[in-house]
Every structure is written in structure tokens, then in C-alpha cells.
């Protein structure tokens, strides 16, 4: 009986092909650095690409050819949502023509759709400036909400890549255990911040302030998305002279000229907080991001 050598070779290759399929790497396109960091934590073997860094304004991104190419290759797109990326994500989706990431029914994931957002609006018009009807999108600065997002993202990864579901669920369990161990530490660090008042840009740190009990009493922007004017800064100086403001806060990507002007005249410290992973040298992952935020806020004298 003659044995077909080609059939033997094909049979020998089957286990290898199955292994290769099971080990296939998920291609993840993250709109913001925090979601890139979370995706890599939950899927260590995935190819994760972040479209922006903590040094960029995530509202304003150009649909560059390099971003289009990355989205064309993506199996999963992870974004904040709540219209944070409304000015550029639809354009990328259109130009990439990748049917896998066009809707949340498939490979599109919006973090804001899995938690309750703050500051939802029933009516929005251009006169209000850069506001979001679906709520404040910067929810990654709330440790409790981020844990919920991590659970939802791991479930989405398992749905898209069921053969590697075990990896995603184990990574989620590891992350959850470490994260829940850190929350009491951050709560302890937040105790000294309850009731403190700050002046800050935009509503970038709304969730962090809400979680810690800090009150933002004024905004450096006269309207969301507009640069400080001399008249507005003068009104902020009057407010600061009441003597109850702890500091002026800006994020890692925001222009600090108006903040410095106010800080100098009101004798207030200007604190630059990392907006995301990579926002300063200390913020190398989600854990160290929060460690750095609390160290900087508690370091204000």
C-alpha cells in the first residue's frame, strides 16, 4: 500500500496550523494612551497601537495616512467615546474601510457606553463651546469606573477572539486583584484633598476631582475649548483673591501661559498633572498614573 507523502505532510501540519490560529495576535487600535495601556494589560500578546499620547489633545487629531493604515489592520478599536473623538474617528473609519471596526456590534468599543458618565446635557449648541451631550468623556480618571471598563473590554476581546478568551480573563483577574488592592491606598491619599478648591482648564479632571472630593471653582477657559482671554483671567484673579484656592491645574498637553499668569499674580502654585499614561516620567502605566496624580496633588504647599 502506497502512502501519499503529501497527505502525510498535510496531516503533520494540522496541529501547527491549529496552534498558529489559537495564538493569533489581536490587532488593537486605541484612540487614547490610557486605553492602549489597558488593552495591553488585558491582552499582553496583542499588537496595540495608540493613536494619541498624553501630550496631545484627544479632541483634535489629524486623520493621517499612518493612522488610516493602522485602523485598516485593526480587529478592535478602543476609544473613550461620548463624542470625544467625533472630530476625527468617523473620518478614519471611512478612509480605512475596515468593516470589522465600524460599529460597536463588531470591533468598536466605547468605554463611555459601559459606565455612567458625569455632566450629561439634554441640549447642546455651538454657543456653549466644546461640550459633550453624552457626558464628560475623561472617565479614565475614576478608578472605579476604569475597573468596570476593564471588565467590559475583556469581555469584548473574548467575544472577538474566543480561542484566547482564557488569556483575557486571566489577565483581567490579575489586573482586578492589583487594582482593587490599590484603590484603598488612593482613597487614603485622597482624604487630605476633600474640600480643596482649584482652578483648572476645561473639565479634564472632572472624574478625578469628583472621586477625591476636590472642587473646581472656576475654569481657565471662558468657554470649553476657547483660550483664556485677558478679561476672563482678570475675573479669575478676583476669584482667587478670596484666598481659598489651593492651586491652578493644567494637564500634560494644555498650554500653561494663562495658568502661569494667574498663578504669579494670585501667588498660587501651578500644577501640571499627567492626563494619561506617559503624561510625565512617573506615569508608565495605569497604576503609576494614579500614584503620580495623588503625589502631585498632595505635594501642593
From TrEMBL:
Residues 1-24 form the signal peptide. Transmembrane segments: none annotated. Keywords: Signal. The keyword Transcription does not apply. It comes from the Bacteria. InterPro entries: Bact_metal-bind_prot9, ZnuA-like. SUPFAM superfamilies: Helical backbone' metal receptor (SSF53807). This is Zinc ABC transporter substrate-binding protein.
Amino acid at each position: 500500500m502506497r502512502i501519499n507523502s503529501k497527505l502525510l505532510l498535510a496531516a503533520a501540519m494540522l496541529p501547527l496550523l491549529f496552534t498558529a490560529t489559537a495564538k493569533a495576535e489581536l490587532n488593537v487600535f486605541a484612540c487614547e494612551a490610557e486605553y492602549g495601556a489597558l488593552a495591553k494589560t488585558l491582552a499582553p500578546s496583542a499588537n496595540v497601537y495608540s493613536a494619541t499620547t498624553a501630550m496631545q489633545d484627544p479632541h483634535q487629531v489629524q486623520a493621517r495616512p499612518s493612522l488610516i493604515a493602522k485602523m485598516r489592520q485593526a480587529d478592535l478599536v478602543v476609544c473613550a467615546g461620548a463624542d470625544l473623538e467625533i472630530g476625527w474617528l468617523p473620518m478614519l473609519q471611512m478612509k480605512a474601510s475596515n468593516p470589522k471596526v465600524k460599529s460597536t456590534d463588531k470591533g468598536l468599543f466605547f468605554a463611555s457606553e459601559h459606565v455612567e458618565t458625569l455632566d450629561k446635557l439634554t441640549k447642546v449648541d455651538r454657543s456653549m463651546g466644546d461640550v459633550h451631550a453624552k457626558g464628560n468623556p475623561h472617565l479614565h480618571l475614576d478608578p472605579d469606573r476604569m475597573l468596570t471598563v476593564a471588565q467590559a473590554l475583556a469581555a469584548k476581546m473574548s467575544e472577538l477572539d474566543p480561542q484566547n478568551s482564557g488569556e483575557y480573563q486571566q489577565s483581567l483577574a490579575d489586573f482586578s486583584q492589583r487594582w482593587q488592592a490599590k484603590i484603598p491606598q488612593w482613597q487614603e491619599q485622597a482624604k487630605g484633598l476633600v474640600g480643596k478648591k482649584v482652578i483648572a482648564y476645561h473639565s479634564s479632571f472632572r472624574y478625578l476631582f469628583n472621586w477625591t472630593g476636590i472642587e473646581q471653582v472656576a475654569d481657565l477657559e471662558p468657554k470649553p475649548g476657547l483660550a483664556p482671554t485677558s478679561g476672563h483671567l482678570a475675573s479669575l484673579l478676583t476669584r482667587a483673591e478670596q484666598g481659598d484656592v489651593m492651586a491652578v491645574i493644567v494637564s500634560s498637553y494644555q498650554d500653561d501661559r494663562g495658568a502661569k499668569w494667574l498663578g504669579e499674580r494670585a501667588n498660587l502654585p501651578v500644577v501640571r498633572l499627567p492626563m494619561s499614561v506617559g503624561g510625565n516620567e512617573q506615569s508608565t502605566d495605569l497604576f503609576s498614573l494614579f500614584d503620580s496624580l495623588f503625589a502631585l496633588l498632595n505635594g501642593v504647599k
